[in-house]
Amino acid sequence: MIEFKDISFSYKKGKGVTNLNLKLGDGEFNFLIGPTGSGKTTLMRLIYFDLVPDSGTLIVNGFKSKNLSFSKTSKVRKEIGMVFQDYKLLNDRNVYDNISLPLYVLGYPKNQIYDRVDESLELVGLQNKKHHFPDELSGGEQQRASLARAIIKEPSLILADEPTGNLDPVASFELVRLLETINETGTTILMATHNYSLIKGRGLPIYEIKDGTLKQR
Amino acid sequence: MIEFKDISFSYKKGKGVTNLNLKLGDGEFNFLIGPTGSGKTTLMRLIYFDLVPDSGTLIVNGFKSKNLSFSKTSKVRKEIGMVFQDYKLLNDRNVYDNISLPLYVLGYPKNQIYDRVDESLELVGLQNKKHHFPDELSGGEQQRASLARAIIKEPSLILADEPTGNLDPVASFELVRLLETINETGTTILMATHNYSLIKGRGLPIYEIKDGTLKQR
Amino acid sequence: MIDKIIYLVLEGLKNILRNKGTSFISLFLLSISIFTISMIIVANDNTQKVLQYFRGKYKIEVFFKDNISDQRATSLVSKIRKISGVRTATLIKKEDALRIFKDQFDEDILKVLGYNPLPVSAVVNLSRTKKSGIKIDQIIRNIKSVGSIEKVIYQGSLIKKIEKNYLRFKNKIPYLVGFMILINILLIVNTIRLSLVSRKQLINNLKLIGASKTFILTPFMIEGILISIFSFIFVTPLLIGTVEGFNYLVLNFSSFKAQIELDFTSIMWFYLLVMVITVLSSYRTASSFLKIKA
Amino acid sequence: MIDKIIYLVLEGLKNILRNKGTSFISLFLLSISIFTISMIIVANDNTQKVLQYFRGKYKIEVFFKDNISDQRATSLVSKIRKISGVRTATLIKKEDALRIFKDQFDEDILKVLGYNPLPVSAVVNLSRTKKSGIKIDQIIRNIKSVGSIEKVIYQGSLIKKIEKNYLRFKNKIPYLVGFMILINILLIVNTIRLSLVSRKQLINNLKLIGASKTFILTPFMIEGILISIFSFIFVTPLLIGTVEGFNYLVLNFSSFKAQIELDFTSIMWFYLLVMVITVLSSYRTASSFLKIKA
Ligand SMILES: Nc1ncnc2c1ncn2[C@@H]1O[C@H](COP(=O)(O)OP(=O)(O)OP(=O)(O)O)[C@@H](O)[C@H]1O
Ligand SMILES: Nc1ncnc2c1ncn2[C@@H]1O[C@H](COP(=O)(O)OP(=O)(O)OP(=O)(O)O)[C@@H](O)[C@H]1O
Ligand SMILES: [Mg+2]
Ligand SMILES: [Mg+2]
Q: What domains can be seen in chain A, in order of their start residue?
């Protein structure tokens, strides 16, 4: 469960988010929309403890975002699957190595890792790009590889930051469908997007952030 | 003027484009759509001579994409402004330094560079992010910085690869408007996008690429 | 778990191969630094030997008073032999002196003069094995106090100078070695930092994925260990070669006959120390790098 | 255009500051390598001087036949003086020899024997300034051919050995310097390559923007030049210090009196050579890097 209580944060060079109040229950699927530069990525970074709030209380899966230690941060992140807006794939490793990394971190045995990678590559439709390096993938393929890396460890929370930016409408639709399927198994999901038409009419809660302040739509 | 005659190209690991025939006249504004992984970026890379076709004839602004030398390639590229799908901003320089780079390459005097950078930052709405580094920008802001770098040298050809992927609908709309304004001054523009609803009904030619083959829509 | 360990060790190895340039340079630097310290160790080990050589060459000549009997001279010489710092004392009787003079100057003084003008004397050799410096003045004074001695001749200043300067140098060795080890650490730290910078992306990814500190740091430490092992493999033949080459030069270009030796035990201990330093400084550097952004 | 040039020079400077680690290491390596070659140059410059010192100490004693007159001896000595490789030849008459003997052995042979048994002799000093090796055997033979000579005494083997080994060493200097310069080039190439790799993104961007080869390469060449200048600034005091330190050691620890000297002209030429090599190899490495992807 994620809980923002009066969270404010500002970057050294100004701007950020102010007085966020938000409660995401376990197993929920929420969307986050807002114009460019409004603070969506900032909000997500707060959740995975990459930024520490200036004031207010933030609790993620029972951990407070305060007095962070390396081990506390790493414990929280082990539970989160992240699709970064800029993918953050490792350029010197192929798709297989990129996607298997979280499983090595979690200490899975090798044979199991192999099966899991295959499985998640199939889910995102990259089964025949396993040995491509990131710069040998199209923009949309990189984005899907990033998704595969996020879901492979079956995390209890998925943060997807603009995961359809480089996908065509069909692929975007399928991606949301995939996330919905994953959500049905109990995974909490928060997805930031600009594509309002993609998410409207699904009956899922949509939060809107504008100039750093949040409201439910 | 850009002319593709029976152009085929395939990557070492397979896939690419086959038998492309395309003619873009000077001063035209064309769109390129197609599902993810269909070859849009590949087509653009052929135009700025980053890839060399396996067969067929490709002519860009009077230069043949054949027997490329460093100086030939650099001459062609000097005339082209590119918005890359992955932005390609330099992480160790701030926005000002990133955007001014093409002008230094072209040998502009310093005072003129300063004015021009201001001007183009205003066009894309980043005037107060001049001293931010790329990782201090939101995704959409990075994308707009990349656009500013492409238009600053007033090139005769602009190639924009998915320039609205991280922009909200309003910003996307404004970006296309901006490109239209630039096009009115005689600049040839080719823009690849997934966002069909953004470009339809503008009366501009739309090419569709699917599995490496092209057709006009 | 085993798969994880294998993975980390392989990562360490791959790190080296992925950044051949950095690895090569760090290998080179580490080798230079290890080589220099090893040479200091060798020099230190061998100074004692060189000193022994000098002491062995150094002779004190003691001339007894004219009227002394051979018997008394013998007893005096055995007294001299007992003085601390003296290795041997050999009595040279009047007849012996005559023979030696004849050998050296090809002139039979007895025939020429009709009598033997040469006095009874003794040649005193200094102890070679004394670890503390030898105090020549003290020894001379002790010899003189034996009695019935006309004069004592010794080449004097050279060995005194050497002994004195050796002691001075010896006092400075700890500083010198300390300084070199500091440089060593700086080099390793710098290398690891370069290696870290070139893998910023990976480290950042690992942090974001929630990797533990151990998971992130182990490959770097393994990398450090491997590089130091490689430099040992590289430096050892170089060390042997240098020592042999030096001995060759000394043998051929000087009248100096001592040979220096490579003491593998101290070198091994030193290698172990380098290893420990590498592991510790890799760990410290890498973990301080992790702290930059919590 | 001027703004472009200023920009490129500043870029070169910023390159160094942006990658402090790499710059530091390349500075360090280059300094070591320059230092080593400079020391070889100094050694080469000074061997001649050392040889002169040895030649200066080296004496040949010529003993004339017993019945020779002082006048004839004088004329023979002046003949000896003209032999190539001979610096001075000093006649020692029978009386002089007597005096010297008395000084050395404290024994007045004339009083003892009633006559002077010592022969007329001459002390011959060798030329110090001959650049080619001195051929002792040849000189001895020439001296003997002057006539009326009983025997010629010389310390023999040492200087012969030194002259021989110096010639042997001298023949190998070109290989040694060549080898060191090769290592130098390798180091510079490796450094530039590291620097290029760490600026892959920038280079790629510049290529895509349409920058000319010169525009891309100039900052790297300026970087190379700056780093070599910095290493000159760093190495020069080190060189002076080493030479002075060596002289101090020689003065204090040996009976050897020659002092070595630093010849700044050859060092300057060498620095210039390093500069040229740096510029060329920076250019080559950087432009080969550009070719990887056309
Ligand atoms: N490290 C930083 N330092 C200073 N300002 C920053 C930093 N990161 C982001 N910002 C600023 O904070 C604001 C919010 O950024 P954020 O990345 O959260 O926006 P966003 O909603 O994700 O936008 P987008 O849809 O374009 O990705 C932006 O104006 C951005 O310029
Ligand atoms: N360097 C490469 N080596 C091998 N295959 C490549 C390489 N670059 C791209 N590809 C493949 O070529 C196909 C076309 O790629 P391209 O980047 O042109 O797609 P795109 O139309 O731009 O897609 P997107 O909309 O996702 O950016 C993809 O299937 C991709 O995997
Ligand atoms: Mg964002
Ligand atoms: Mg693309």
A: 1-79+187-217 (3.40.50.300), 80-154 (no CATH)
Q: What is the CATH number of the domain that holds D147?
A: 3.30.70.3040
Q: Which of D154, D183, D218 is the last residue of a domain?
A: D154
Angle at CA of residue C147, ends C142 and C151, nearest 5°: 80
Using alpha carbons, list the distances in angstroms from residue B150 to B74, C21, C263, D115: 15, 35, 67, 112
Nearest atom within ligand 2 for CA of residue B209: 21
Q: Of the residues C92, C126, C154, which one is the last residue of a structural domain?
A: C154
- Inter-CA distances, A85 with A11, A73, B84, B192, C294, Å: 19, 21, 15, 19, 21
Residue D166 lies in a domain: no
Range in B165-179, C193-207, D220-234 with the lowest mean pLDDT: C193-207
Structure-derived torsion over alpha carbons of residues B165, B169, B173, B178, reported in degrees to the nearest 10: -50
Predicted confidence (pLDDT) per residue in B64-121, tens digit: 998 888 999 999 999 999 999 999 999 989 999 999 999 999 989 988 999 999 999 9
* Backbone dihedral region for residue C85 (phi beyond 0: left; psi -120 to 50: alpha; all else: beta): left
Q: Is the CB of B85 under 6 A from ligand 2?
A: yes
Residue D177 and residue D43 share a domain: yes
Report chain C residues whose CB lies below 8 A from the CB of D22.
194
The torsion defined by the Cα of C173, C175, C178 and C180, in degrees rounded to 10, comes to -80
Q: Is A155 helix (H, G, I), strand (E, B) or coil?
A: coil
* Contact (Cβ atoms closer than 8 angstroms) between residue C240 and residue C11: no
| Residue D28 in contact with partner chain C when CB distance is under 8 A | yes
- Look at the block and give the residue holding tokens 């298997």: A100
The answer to whether C28 faces chain D, any CB pair under 8 Å, is yes
Instruction: Determine the residue type at B170.
Output: V
Residue A128 to residue B9: CA distance in whole angstroms: 19
Domain hosting D119: range is 59-154
ipTM of the complex: 0.79
The predicted-structure confidence for A196-215, as pLDDT tens digits, reads as follows 889 988 999 999 999 888 98
Torsion of CA C229, C230, C233, C235, to 10 degrees: -100
H-only helix segments in chain A: 40-47, 70-78, 95-106, 110-124, 139-151, 169-184, 196-199
Residues in chain B closer than 8 A to A139 (CB atoms): 36, 41, 85-86, 161-162, 165
How confident is the model at residue C275, as a pLDDT? Answer: 87
How many Å apart are CA C25 and CA C47, to the nearest integer? 33
CB atoms within 10 A of CB B193: 22
Q: How far apart are CA A13 and CA A15, in angstroms?
A: 7
**CA–CA dist D94, D75 (Å, integer):** 16
The two tokens of residue D23 are 């710059």
Q: Are D151 and D63 in contact (CB under 8 A)?
A: yes
Mean pLDDT score of chain C: 79
Q: What is the pLDDT of residue B135?
A: 93
- What are the residues whose beta carbons fall under 8 Å from the beta carbon of A85, sequence distance 6 or more? A41, A161, A162, A165, A192, B139, B166
Using a CB–CB cut-off of 8 Å, the residues of D that contact B are: 1-4, 6-7, 18, 201-202, 204-213, 215, 290, 293-294
Q: Is residue C165 part of a domain?
A: no
D residues 115-174 lying closer than 8 A (beta carbon) to C: 158, 161-162, 165
Report the C-alpha gap between B213 and D246 in whole angstroms.
77
Distance CA B158, CA B147 (A): 10
Any ligand 2 atom below 6 A from CB of B130: no
pTM for this model (two decimals) = 0.80
Same domain membership, residue D190 and residue D140:
no
Q: How far apart are CA B6 and CA D280, in angstroms?
A: 43
